[in-house]
Amino acid sequence: MQTSFEHFAMGAMLGQSDMPPKDNGSLCFGAPWQRQAFGMALALSKQGVFEWDEFRSELISTIAAWEATHDTSDPSWDYYEIWLTALETMVKRSGLDGRATLAP
Amino acid sequence: MDRFEYSRDREATNAARARALEALLIEKGVITSETVDKIMAIFATEMGPFNGAKLVAKAWVDPAFKILLAQDTMAAVEQMNFATKGAGAEGEHMKAAVNTPEVHNLIICTLCSCYPWPILGLPPYWYKDPSFRARAAREPRKVLGEFGLDVDPGKEIKTWDSSAHIRWFVVPERPAGTDGFSEEQLAALVTPESMMGVAIVKPPGA
């Protein structure tokens, strides 16, 4: 089973120089919700809802929790899903959500 | 077919979660419906590998700048007047690892996905891949080989693990056949991959 980086490496060897990483920035998001999750995290840190380093710590521990329970080559890995989970945790922790509930 | 269904549901669920979160933040007055677009527009226009390529090209034509870039990266970046002042996140402590005939540098982030945004933009998806992060630290030569880069066995490979404190990027070696090139012409040769250390800068036309 191929991981995404091996897929890229293979593409690079086959000379597909127009693979996504070439378009760094614009094609890093596989779906609009990934971009949304990314932009919201930046916005909230800019607004001071949390410090960027706090968010990063939460992201690191969410990734570590995934890696503790999955093989590193597990294809179900989804970076932005983990990012979104970390972001939801930070929003809950900030108390911003009050009694409003986030979607399950 | 089952896996397709599963993955489509998962995408839909994640999209719904992101929508719900954004709606909540808008309702609480923390952001507006335009905030994400505004922030992402800054990324598209001000932060990206086009900045890193300019740094590298300048280092190639200006030996004093190359030394400054290696020794005091942020002072060198200051001189470039990039439009990313106060970018904050991920841009505060960048450091250059300069390739030489003896040493090839590779950047990774073993814990998550730290990356020098202002000069490289957002990391490609494989940089965040658990398998890449683990293997690049353990067996960089083999991983680079899989990227199609066979590093001379006599050359040392150094991996630089980005963290909250330092975000690394690589200054690749100037390729042959570029004598007399302008900074602009040189910058056009510099790829994001070469500034991550998973590729070298190829001579023009190669």
TrEMBL record, chain A:
Domain Nitrile hydratase beta subunit-like N-terminal, residue spans: 10-97
Stated name of the protein: Nitrile hydratase accessory protein
Organism name: Tardiphaga robiniae
Organism classification: Bacteria, Pseudomonadati, Pseudomonadota, Alphaproteobacteria, Hyphomicrobiales
TrEMBL record, chain B:
Coiled-coil stretches: none
Recorded catalytic activity of this chain's protein: an aliphatic primary amide = an aliphatic nitrile + H2O
Lineage of source species: Bacteria, Pseudomonadati, Pseudomonadota, Alphaproteobacteria, Hyphomicrobiales
Protein name: nitrile hydratase
Residues that hold Fe(3+) according to the record: C109, C112, S113, C114
Organism: Tardiphaga robiniae
Keywords: Iron, Lyase, Metal-binding
Cleavable signal peptide: none
Cited SUPFAM superfamilies: Nitrile hydratase alpha chain
Domain Nitrile hydratase alpha/Thiocyanate hydrolase gamma, first and last residues per copy: 14-199
Top-rank taxon, per record: Bacteria
EC top class named in words: lyase
EC number assigned by the record: 4.2.1.84
